[in-house]
Structure prediction request, 535 residues.
Amino acid sequence: MQPILSTAHMAEVDRLTSEQYGLPGLLLMENAAVGAALAIEGHFGPVQRRRIRIFCGKGNNGGDGAAVARQLWMRGAQVEVLLFGKRETARDDARVNFDVVAQLAQASSRIRLVEAQSETEFASVIANSGSRFNLHVDALFGTGLTRGLEGMFVKVVEYLNGARQYIPVCALDLPSGLAADLPHPVGVHVTADLTVTFTAPKIANVLPPAGHLNGALRVVDIGSPRSLVQATPNHRASLFRVTSEGVGAYLERARRLPDAHKGHVGHVLLIAGSRGKTGAAALAGEGVLRAGAGLLTIACPASAQALLVSQCLPEAMTLGLPDDAQGQLAEEGLRAAFAAANQHTVCAMGPGLGTEAATRRLAQWIVKEGKAPTVLDADALNCLSPWQTGHGTPDRPLILTPHPGEMARLLGVSVNDILVDRLGAARRLATTSHLYVVLKGYYTLIATPEGDIYINPTGNAGMATGGSGDALTGILAGLLAQTPHLPLEATLAAVYLHGQAGDLANETLGERALIASDILRFLPQAFKTYAQSAQ
Prediction:
């Protein structure tokens, strides 16, 4: 999985790369420039004979911009470096790169350095630009920005955004106006078509709404050892991005042996469905089987069993739980469900189950005293809100899959409290009760009992439809049943593949027409991608 670095961690990586491995800052800046130039050509096409203006601040981000200017010039572009400030006041590696551009400008008409120290000077530069530029590069502010832009830079950003309708923007490290450690803008900000970030993504590169402003994201390796990126002294990386490579590695570990039979790949008990809500159980059940579990039993109130059978895949078995005249679980139904939960590889509970008193007692009983790894979703979460029921253990993981509303009820806060700090909410619930928490939404978060958080990049707005979460519950339970010793890896793969299947469905059907069963329809294609790559 790909680490997502904080500002402090990134600075530590850069420092230790130089101190411990002897790679000077100028070399790292040069590596960044080479990678950025390649990313620019890869995204926008060859730069030869194209006019490019690079907007530079006086700090290291501006120094990166000056180095990128030279690389683009070497590839045949006509480049203007617009420095906001005096070259003489820039420091260290940035000053070196500005000086190089100034010296090259004396020998070549295809590169020049222009300085602007006020709004008036900036306006004059724009007014005298001559023919239109083909690309703007934003190298104003990098990861060090913590507060909103002011003065002249507000005008500069407004110009970049206004001109973007005909001149695309590439940002270096992150669009100016974003604070690297925050998922939301801190004021006026650049909207980029491409962002080239260095070494690893930052929070503002990934999490929305700031993540939306990056455009396409490319990560450039500038030479820092991966050991430093993964974990530096006195700092443990705790934020990661789920990657296709990581999911592929898990699926390879979960590959079936040639002599495998259904008993080798897990038996899931899915406690789901009730009168009028059997469709949720059917979607979750298909997810279990499509994810590869060997056996599936769906337990539901006996009065809903006949309808559930007609909706389910023929491969699924059903267990009718004793209920009363109103369709609610009777006391014998609680005992039967609890006994069954402990006899299966994995227990999943919640989709379409209802929240009556008997169901609440069953959910609490399973969480407190159950033995099997358990996935809790939908009505099971509502039965357990606010969360105070029990704790997971290494031998018996508990995996919760709430959407923001369910998360708010679990923590006893407002939905807005969750949306404002999704990372903090997911980490708090996961660590206090030793749970795995899948906080669903755009860029779903997966929090671990140790406090690490993984950000999932797959999925689209078409998946905002009834039953999508039920499908995820089934996929997760199905993978977990095959690898109960790898709860985190199974969870990450389930969330990623669920989103990837939704993306495949979107490519064929479009967002508006997408329904939950389409996710399951395209799930085999998502799995097949990894099977082909492993051959």
The chain has a mean pLDDT of 93. The domain at 2-232 is CATH 3.40.50.10260 (Rossmann fold).
